[in-house]
């Protein structure tokens, strides 16, 4: 049995399709990292203000 391919999924934190896309990749057998979305829908905006 082969190990799943690791996939780091990036996108706008406000994009609600990112978790759905991650789930699609998981169903195809990928090991997906998309846990960064947890900061919430305003994380991009707050990060830009910080920078």
UniProtKB/TrEMBL annotation:
Protein name per the record: Nucleoside 2-deoxyribosyltransferase
């Amino acid at each position: 049995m082969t190990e799943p391919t690791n996939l780091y999924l990036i996108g706008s934190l406000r994009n609600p399709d990112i978790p759905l896309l991650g789930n699609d990749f998981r169903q195809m057998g990928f090991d997906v990292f998309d846990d960064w979305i947890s900061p919430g829908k305003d994380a991009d905006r707050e990060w830009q203000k910080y920078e």
